[in-house]
């Protein structure tokens, strides 16, 4: 039986990649499929939460019962998340948001020109860091970190630097972990110093493990 430990709570999940246009037919993006975020949205709904899923372009069936909001760019994801942030209890940011976008979007298809060309990139807003600044005492913020090296050091820097409650780090170089796989290998870092290192498992089970930890934290706050 699925525990109803998120009943009555509002949960916001982000998933998928963002697409940053360069011209009408080209964009910069990444290999995120949305599977991790969709699994989290589905699991949170099954545990009784009202769930909004803000998703970048993904070829997945939206989980039943979940309010889906589709976005394309990091800027659109920023607007969508900020619009709903004040009214949610838990935010889980599994989306792979582009850190940079083309500084200029050409209104026409860019033509071939010479042997090399340069594209200037502009920094996107860090959505999670902004949520960390705005977070109220009752709100729980869960971030992800996709790392290829120095996992623990980078994870802890994101956990404290972005004022998160939990940080889920995946070493995306491990077989079966990270982008586009049905499985993942994660470590969950808490502010209490507790680190849970999970073996390779299906993303639906990873989602349950993340929600176990988040639900406990929410309960301990309500009891406090
Ligand atoms: O979608 P799948 O194919 O299932 O793959 C899952 C995943 C690998 C994408 C997922 O498990 C994951 O790791 N998601 C986060 C990927 C990422 O962008 O990590 P990051 O270390 O660059 O970002 C750290 C955190 O800040 C993330 O929670 C991210 O959503 C957030 N962020 C990053 C940049 C930005 N401009 N705004 C943000 O909010």
UniProtKB/TrEMBL annotation:
Domain DNA/pantothenate metabolism flavoprotein C-terminal: 6-216
GO biological process, one term: coenzyme A biosynthetic process
Pathway info: Cofactor biosynthesis; coenzyme A biosynthesis; CoA from (R)-pantothenate: step 2/5; Cofactor biosynthesis; coenzyme A biosynthesis; CoA from (R)-pantothenate: step 3/5
Enzyme Commission (EC) number: 4.1.1.36, 6.3.2.5
Entry GO MF terms: FMN binding; metal ion binding; phosphopantothenate--cysteine ligase activity; phosphopantothenoylcysteine decarboxylase activity
Cleavable signal peptide: none
Location of region: Phosphopantothenate--cysteine ligase: 11-224
GO cellular component: phosphopantothenoylcysteine decarboxylase complex
Keywords: Decarboxylase, Flavoprotein, FMN, Ligase, Lyase, Magnesium, Metal-binding, Multifunctional enzyme
Domain of life assignment: Bacteria
Cofactor(s) the protein requires to work: Mg(2+); FMN
Amino acids binding CTP: 99, 109, 125-128, 144, 158, 162
Reaction(s) catalysed (UniProt annotation): (R)-4'-phosphopantothenate + L-cysteine + CTP = N-[(R)-4-phosphopantothenoyl]-L-cysteine + CMP + diphosphate + H(+); N-[(R)-4-phosphopantothenoyl]-L-cysteine + H(+) = (R)-4'-phosphopantetheine + CO2
Cofactor note: Binds 1 FMN per subunit.
Function (record text): Catalyzes two steps in the biosynthesis of coenzyme A. In the first step cysteine is conjugated to 4'-phosphopantothenate to form 4-phosphopantothenoylcysteine, in the latter compound is decarboxylated to form 4'-phosphopantotheine. Catalyzes two sequential steps in the biosynthesis of coenzyme A. In the first step cysteine is conjugated to 4'-phosphopantothenate to form 4-phosphopantothenoylcysteine. In the second step the latter compound is decarboxylated to form 4'-phosphopantotheine.
Family (UniProt): In the C-terminal section; belongs to the PPC synthetase family. In the N-terminal section; belongs to the HFCD (homo-oligomeric flavin containing Cys decarboxylase) superfamily.
Name the record gives this protein: Coenzyme A biosynthesis bifunctional protein CoaBC
This protein's encoding gene: coaBC
